[in-house]
Amino acid sequence: MTKKRFAKKIFLLVLFLISIYNAFFTETALALFQPECQNRGITTFLDGYAPPGSYFQVYFLNFKSNELRLGSKEAPGRFKLSVNTALYQFAYVSEKKVLGGHWGGEIIMPLTNGHMTAFGTRDKDHGVGDIFVAGFFQSDKKTLRLGNYQIPSYFRLLAGVFSPSGDYDHDKIFNVGNNLYTFHLYCSSTFFLTPKWELSSRLMYNFHTTNTEYGPDQDNLRPGQLFNMNFATSYQVRENIRLGVAGYYWRQTTDDKLNSHNLRGRELAVGVGPGIILDRVIAKKKVFLMCHSLFDTSVKNRPKGTTLQARLVIVF
Q1: What is the mean pLDDT of residues 159-171?
Q2: Does residue 218 come out as left (phi exceeding 0), alpha (psi in the -120 to 50 range) or beta?
Q3: According to the 3-state scheme, what is the secondary structure of 94-111?
Q4: Which of 74, 78, 221, 223 could form a disulfide with 208 if both were Cys (CB 3.0 to 4.6 A apart)?
Q5: pTM of the prediction?
Q6: Class of the 3-315 domain?
Q7: Are residues 151 and 202 in contact, defined by beta-carbon separation less than 8 angstroms?
Q8: What is the distance between the alpha carbons of residues 18 and 25, in angstroms, rounded to a whole number?
Q9: Where are the domains of the chain?
Q10: Which residues pair with 184 in a beta bridge?
Q11: How do residues 28-75 score in pLDDT, each as one tens digit?
Q12: 9: Cα separation from own chain's centroid
């Protein structure tokens, strides 16, 4: 396939994804307390590997659920949620070295529009969601030695914050914003077990401030802290194609608080599914297309559903 034909296919794919977004683009901020702006299986393959340069990434996600779990059982009544997410990310990794690695920064802007039916109520909303800003440290290649066996590896440490920039209405059960700050920490890593086989993970922890306008009575709600982990592995089957498996683990570690009273019902979820990575050099720019799906399995106190995602990465 020529570079011109490949570039045309990538362009048509992006137009197709944008048309899907314009037709039924949704993102949710549930009344189930944990802000959905957090990374639940969004980042997957080659996650800890980011050489110096400028990056532009677009994520298109779709999450659908017809089942709300209270504890480990399905909640009574009708529940329906359709979620599509478009995230626009700009990241920069410096050429200059600091402490054996490179500093960097990123900003992510979500565009949201969605609907949810629950508890006899149907709501919808659209607009810019909660914007994320962060700084990070990206390592150079490190080599792990197991006897005579060497494993090239990379890692990244990040600290950032989601700001309450999205629209919020206390009378609605569905909002594009969460009306609070979320402080986000993570460590991501990638290990090349062989030149063709990589293993990646991202360990994350989230702290939230208080939403002082929650619900019709404008109560004080502080979501519990959250630990979540994304994991993935892929194998290069051809020069520009990798096949793999991705998943996530999501566990709330402290209780939600409503008007200073602890609420039982911490969230738990696990999901896994297949994925593919395509890469080419187009106009001297490295271009990646990553696609994967996630099927929720063990879920408590949140919606159970299916996620589909396409991610376009351009390295300048």
Answers
A1: 93
A2: left
A3: EEEEECCEEEEEEEEEEE
A4: 223
A5: 0.87
A6: mainly beta
A7: no
A8: 9
A9: 3-315
A10: 160, 206
A11: 334 468 888 899 999 999 999 999 999 999 999 999 999 999 998 998
A12: 25
